[in-house]
Amino acid sequence: MSYALHLLIYLSMYVVLAQSLNLVVGYMGRLNLAHAGFVAVGAYAYALATVVLGWTFLPGLLLAVTLAVALSLLLSLPSWRFRGDFFIMITLVVQALLYGVIHNWTSPGADLGSLANLTNGPFGIAGIPKPAISGIQFDTIGRMAALSVALAGICTALTLRLTSSPWGRLLKCLRDDELALRGLGKDVRRLKVQAFAFCCGLAAVGGVIYASYVSYVDPTTASLDESILLLCMLCVGGMGNFRGPMAGALVLLLLPELLRMTPMPQAVAANVRLMAYGLLLIVIVHFRPQGLAGDYRLE
Amino acid sequence: MKPAIEVEEISFSFGGFRVIDGISLSGNDGETLGIIGPNGSGKSTFFDLLSGFRTAESGRIRLNGRDVTRMAPEVRASHGLGRTFQRTAAFYGLTVAEHLRIPRLARRMPASDRVAAAYQIVEELLGRTGIGERQHEPVESLAAGECRILDLARAITQAPCVILLDEPFAGIDGAQEKAVTTCIRQASTMACVILVEHRLEALLSLVGRVLVFHQGRVLATGDPSEVLNRGEVLRAYRGELRESPSS
């Protein structure tokens, strides 16, 4: 039972992350490799708020989202004129920058949370307390799963509401023909800034779910591998609609778990898992380039 | 009364190659101007300069007396400039009706007689071409010619004071051509329409004045039937006029 709940918490987190990435990649048509950086920003902000400042869950969540939204300007402002390869390069730079800052903002002997040692470098931040809202402690795996599912539900409903609104339609127009949209009088820079802000804010929620469940964050949360995994979820599940990211999160989360059940030594299983990922991607890209349930094919 | 659009000696180069060289033009409300010229003579680049997708190196562009030379395309659009492109600009996944609502989503457009008149023109165009009955179908179901008509309709729903139409007759059939011609005529009652078009018959039935572009300059301008019989215009079209006219 605990194992199923554990998977449910991870599934909730990945659904939030894939849905948020889908805003920029699937609806806006820009391939973003910096997503894990913003997940880590959310996770670290929450960790510092609860461990160092002693804040409770909701203020910590609010701080994480606010900080990620503010830092989304790092991505949206320099990249607004670009698309294609140049845009990807900018997201890669931001990803490397966030990882570098998180990995290196430490100083031996300095207190955690001080200006000299904000992230504790490669050692990460441990001892993140379990969430509590209005006196209700989410200290069991069942309660934690309920909280994660509730947060994922709220985030998914929000993205669904956003993408089916006129704003969401404009985002699709931006993806299909940016010049024509500008010719119709739309300020596309503002639209992009808003899309990145939503994307990064929701990524921070995913980061908070992770940090509060695992009670520990380290710089690997911000690694490029994580960004690529999230992109793979969109490639496999599909993008440009609400179903694709859900399908992608489900398949890429359950696939390694299924492989875990095969009678193979752990070291072999890890390699087989990577090969299975690769094979799955090749098969999907070749036979179903729009993904399992997607509406849009990234060019 | 100020002209709807006023272009004063604008120039533009790609690298060191001058593609627009000191072109001037003026158009009033209710006027339809045609721009013709051989391929590569600078017609589409000129439209890009007018609509802000490229910025002129020198010269001035005014919309209703307002200097818009350095303004971004979206700002020019909000000051009353609408355009279509040489390619069709379809937003996939949206229905025909949603396409026509994009200008309203893109910027605030207060209800006015002008907007109502624009929607009336569009409604008639869509009715004549049969697209009106397919308002709730996705744009992917439209043929290429129908997409071009939708582009024109969308530009008119902006209720602009200047409409730039880049090859509005490309890819459309005879019956549709008639509907588009009527629509452009109606649109010109509320705006200055400037067309770039290779189908001369269609163009000549609409415009009161034509400008012939050659190597980034205006080779000839005036009444269409008179201009098209000039020797230098014919030579430019046959590729016999190698040097720029002023050299």
Gist of the model:
Chain A is mainly α and 299 residues long. Chain A has helices spanning 2-27, 35-51, 57-71, 73-79, 84-104, 141-163, 166-176, 178-183, 188-214, 224-237, 243-261, 266-287, and strands at residues 125-126, 132-133, 136-137, 216-217.
Looking at the structure, what is the overall shape of chain A? globular
Helix percentage of chain A: 55-70%
What is the third-level CATH name, the topology of chain A? Answer: ABC transporter involved in vitamin B12 uptake, BtuC
Shape of chain B: globular
Report the sheet with the most strands of chain A, covering strand number, pairing sense and barrel closure: 2 strands, antiparallel
* CATH C-level class of chain A: Mainly Alpha
General description of the model:
The complex is a heterodimer of chains A (299) and B (247). With 299 residues, chain A is mainly α. Chain A is 70% helix and 3% strand. In chain A, the strands form two sheets. In chain A, strands 1-4 form a two-stranded antiparallel sheet. In chain A, strand 2 and strand 3 form a beta hairpin. In chain A, helix 1 crosses helix 11, helix 4 runs antiparallel to helix 9 and helix 10 crosses helix 11. The longest helix of chain A is centred in the C-terminal third of the chain and has 27 residues. The mean pLDDT of chain A is 92. Chain B is an alpha/beta fold. Chain B is built from nine helices and ten strands. In chain B, the strands form two sheets. Chain B has a six-stranded mixed beta sheet, sandwiched between helices. In chain B, strand 4 and strand 5 form a beta hairpin. In chain B, helix 3 runs parallel beside helix 5, helix 4 packs antiparallel against helix 5 and helix 4 packs antiparallel against helix 6. The longest helix of chain B is centred in the middle third of the chain and has 17 residues. The radius of gyration of chain B is 18 Å and the shape is globular. The model of chain B has no long low-confidence stretch (mean pLDDT 89). At the A-B interface, helix 7 and helix 8 of A face helix 2 and helix 3 of B.
